[in-house]
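Title: Prediction job returns without error message
Component: structure pipeline
Severity: low
Priority: P3
Assignee: unassigned

Description:
Job completed but the reporter wants confirmation the result is attached to the right record. Sequence as submitted:
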Amino acid sequence: MDLTVWRTFVTVCRLGSLSAAAAELHHTQSAVSRQIAGLERQFGVPLLERHARGVRPTAAGEVFRRHALAALHEADRAVRAVRELREGEAVRPLAVGATPSLAAGIVPQAVREMLEEAGPVRWSLLPALSAELHGRVAAGELDVAVVTDAPPGLPHDPRVEQHPLGADEMVVVLPTGHRLAGGGPLRMAELAGETWAEDNDGSAALLHRHAARAGVTARIDLAAADLPGKLALVATGHAVALVPGVLAPALRADVTAVPLADPPARGIHALTPRRDPHPRAALLLDRLAEGVRRARAGGPRPAPGSRSAASSSGAPGPGSG
């Protein structure tokens, strides 16, 4: 089947309009309508339904859209691979995924070290949560994904190879002027009255589990869409938050990371496809493992006036309260 028609259908679904798709694809609207009608005749079911503001896929159309989109992505990758081989690039582009906290520091640094050691290669980075990244590795869309086993954990999948990289202890992030910002390690009992912000279910589960173990309740009253949003709620004094320890060196300047007593931890893993691994994957895994080790050795950034900062300067530090 001509993939041009598939591309037309996917574009119509994305834009919700035959006329808008025609303009984007430089077709006439009647040509777009004919292509859609041809698909519907072939499948024997309607693929689009009209509504007040345009069109949307039917149930059958949505099923076809998802598969067509995957096929088009793979076709585009095939074309790029042939072009790059023709132009003399020996190694195919490296597609990397990472959770937001790991994409903020460890992964870019590991890729840089890999490039310095083995030479240039085109690469891309997709930040996403662990479940989505696992699915993309299994589907062959990513060569390496750096994820965590935070709840609900990583599934067993025969298509995916798991490579443990190390453990990461969570820390609590406070506004710089918070009464506890100069102390630590903190006990959960000291944070019992705080409002917490969270941006994903896995981190929330770790927080609830840790609080229950300490015999207190963590009130997650504020939800953020992503990690930057969660940190913004902390920086403006609305909440405190639990974040990965590996993120501490990359935090914004108006928040302070403080260690927890008996902190919750999560494992960091790299995922690779079992079939056709990328030639650079093994080297990148080595650099990632080293990055995790360095991050754990560094720990949270000391707050101004904290016991850690004071002891390094020889001055006495304030009590933790």
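Comment from assignee: result matches the submitted record. The chain is about 45% helix and 20% strand.
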